[in-house]
């Protein structure tokens, strides 16, 4: 890029007639560049009129080329802290063209070059060039004035001044623009992430909606199946229930046992009552019936009959049998506030509940209860004590039995009776 030829007729602007603007001046020196700010009101020295006579103001064309942002950014190649340019390098770099493009991209005025003639013979005359750039900022316009080293060629002197201006814009001003551009890129990336998250959330919501619909259908089908099952359980209940009391009474239980082909004194009927959590001996409420048969998954008589063997296995597990044994005692408390059971009933209950598991102990204990005269009834503590005796004491040796370990008194007498009998 070449500077326009000098035009002696070009008017020289009068500094006093121009509106003062904030100005910064950067001057190239041997050790690098030095910068100083100039006040808005600049005092002209005595030689200003003489200097103005030697100033030729050269302004580039008013129309700026349309340059893309990446091209201008590429033009701002980082310069060293000490910008130095030889004549050959200046012709290759062409800092004036880069500065011109940058001003076009930033929508600034074209850079202005001012030439100062230095003293000396015509054949060795040196030229000093100043380039002025009006920087538009949010706070206003700042004028950047940069000087290059004196040179015997105007073109190279102007190139050096432009290089100083580029160095300043790159290291002080353009860095801020880069940060702003990076922030804009960050906002764009973040916006894209938000859009992707929104799309993912929408997709997940749609998937959840489908899953929810499927779950609702499954629940609906399951609910319908449960309703039908409960209807069949109620139908079976009504076959044995007394219509006036809406309870399965002793007569209904006998009929049920007959249809199940099980004696009414069979332990499995007591186990069925335990599964139902029946509260009153000889009676099943509809709620108890539903609870038990639903747990057994038996909604017909045939299914209930097949469920009894599995129920017996469940009860005889060690984790369940102690609870069943205690329930059997409570189930026989037929009167309100009753806390004990007569000896005759206890003997029958022991035969049903414990006879198949601890036959020798039950036979001896029943025999003792029938011949002794100290006890007419047995309470819960004595009942559970016998269960503990069967599980902890070897029989008939009973070597582990220690009467000082707070056994019920009826068991102390029972052990003493056996030992006398064995002697």
Automatic annotation (TrEMBL):
Segments passing through the bilayer: none
DCUN1 domain segment(s): 228-419
InterPro entries per UniProt: DCN-prot, DCN1-like_PONY, dsRBD_dom, EF-hand-dom_pair, PONY_dom
SUPFAM superfamilies named in the record: dsRNA-binding domain-like, EF-hand
Function noted in UniProt: Neddylation of cullins play an essential role in the regulation of SCF-type complexes activity.
Record-linked PANTHER family: DEFECTIVE IN CULLIN NEDDYLATION PROTEIN, RP42 RELATED
Protein name: Defective in cullin neddylation protein
């Amino acid at each position: 890029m070449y500077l326009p030829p000098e035009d002696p007729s070009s008017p020289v602007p009068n500094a006093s007639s121009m509106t003062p603007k904030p100005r910064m001046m950067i001057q190239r020196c041997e050790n690098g560049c030095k910068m100083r700010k100039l006040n808005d009101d600049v005092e002209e020295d005595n030689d200003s009129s003489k200097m103005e006579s030697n100033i030729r103001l050269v302004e580039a064309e008013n129309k700026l080329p349309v340059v893309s942002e990446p091209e201008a950014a590429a033009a701002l190649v980082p310069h060293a802290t000490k910008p130095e340019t030889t004549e050959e390098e200046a012709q290759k770099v062409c800092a004036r063209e880069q500065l011109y493009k940058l001003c076009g991209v930033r929508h600034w005025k074209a850079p202005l070059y001012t030439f100062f003639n230095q003293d000396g013979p015509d054949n060795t005359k040196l030229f000093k060039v100043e380039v002025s750039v009006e920087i538009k900022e949010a706070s206003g316009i700042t004028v950047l004035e940069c000087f290059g080293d004196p040179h015997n060629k105007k073109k190279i002197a102007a190139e050096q001044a432009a290089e100083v201006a580029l160095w300043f814009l790159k290291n002080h001003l353009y860095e801020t623009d880069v940060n702003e551009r990076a922030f804009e890129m960050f906002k764009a990336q973040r916006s894209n992430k938000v859009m992707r998250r929104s799309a993912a959330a929408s997709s997940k919501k749609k998937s959840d909606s489908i899953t929810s619909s499927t779950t609702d259908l499954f629940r609906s089908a399951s609910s319908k199946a449960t309703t039908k099952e409960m209807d069949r359980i109620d139908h079976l209940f009504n076959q044995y229930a007394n219509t006036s009391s809406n309870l399965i009474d002793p007569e209904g239980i006998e009929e049920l046992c007959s249809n199940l082909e099980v004696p009414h004194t069979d332990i499995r009927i007591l186990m069925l009552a335990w599964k139902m959590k029946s509260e009153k001996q000889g009676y099943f409420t509809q709620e108890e019936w539903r609870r038990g048969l639903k747990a057994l998954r038996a909604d017909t008589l045939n299914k209930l009959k097949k469920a009894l063997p599995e129920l017996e296995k469940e009860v005889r597990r060690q984790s369940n049998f102690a609870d069943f044994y205690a329930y059997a005692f409570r189930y026989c408390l037929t009167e309100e506030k009753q806390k004990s059971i007569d000896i005759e009933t206890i003997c029958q209950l022991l035969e049903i509940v414990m006879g198949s598991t601890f036959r020798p102990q039950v036979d001896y204990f029943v025999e003792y209860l029938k011949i002794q005269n100290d006890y007419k009834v047995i309470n819960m503590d004595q009942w559970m004590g016998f269960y503990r005796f069967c599980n902890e004491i070897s029989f008939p040796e009973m070597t582990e039995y220690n009467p000082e370990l707070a056994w019920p008194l009826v068991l102390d007498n029972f052990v003493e009776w056996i030992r006398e009998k064995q002697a």
